Amino acid sequence: xxxxxxxxxLVCAFSLAGTSVIAARFIDDHVGTFTIxxxxxxxxxxxxxxxxxxxxxxxVLRLSLQDWMLLLTQSLFGVFLFRMFLLYGLAHTSAGEAxxxxxxxxxxxLILALLLLKESINRTALLGILSTIGGILLLQGILIPERxxxxxxxxxxxxxxxxxxxxxxxxFNIFSRNAAIKTHLSHREPLHPITQTTLVSAMALVLCxxxxxxxxxxxxxxxxxxxxxxxxxxxxxxxxxxAFIFWYAGIKRCQVSTAAALSGMMPFSSLLLSVxxxxxxxxxxxxxxxxxxxxxxxxxxxxxxSNMKKKKLPSLST
Length: 318
Hints:
The protein is built from 13 helices and no strands. By secondary structure, it is mainly α. The longest helix has 33 residues, at 153-185.
């Protein structure tokens, strides 16, 4: 049951994360990159701090220097660098293409998990990862000869920046899982997902404040319309607060290889919203790629049960 609950949380987290590409498209042309991130984090903290309450204060008082460093790395790679690369990338490439390119996360996360965390995967898990990666390649059009033109020189810089965002997200996955393992091995009480999300968001906000000042945030925010503010609100309490709460609740129950496969929900949800919200056209290759992504998640999910028996983290209430 804990295994399925963890997978459910991760699916919710990555589905919400996939909407960030669409939300950013509505505001990227009007407000600076660091201003977008800072405002969204501030709005998220307005919701998170009251939810954290007394538990948040107690946690801050008992954290060690190592704990703070782990949280700092998570905020640096999972929020600050990820959003910086993604938002700058969106200035050079389309929303749909950027959303799909975030699908590089599963492959990068799996490689890092094998190298850094020494996690092992069997053939079923590997097949699930390959199915996810294949679906992402099909979604992007790499496997369709006539669509290779999508990787033109004009979009090259944007594509590279979005891939850097995917690498940052993968490193965040690794650091989050590593923090959970260290907490378990030291027999300490794990951080509550809401508390952990609040601290990571606050640290990321501090990182964004100085660079945002060079973007003249007050004048930029004073001229944007209600759609821009609606996008910022979605980017904050939902894409940031709720998605990260789901993430921390899920990664404590699942291996990184599982999170890698489920991260395929990011490009899949981006694809759906590109069609529904932005009106982009899709064909059989996009939907076939989506089916492969779902198949990969099923294969990894079925394999997770045996892995958790060998290496299991304590159950956590959220």
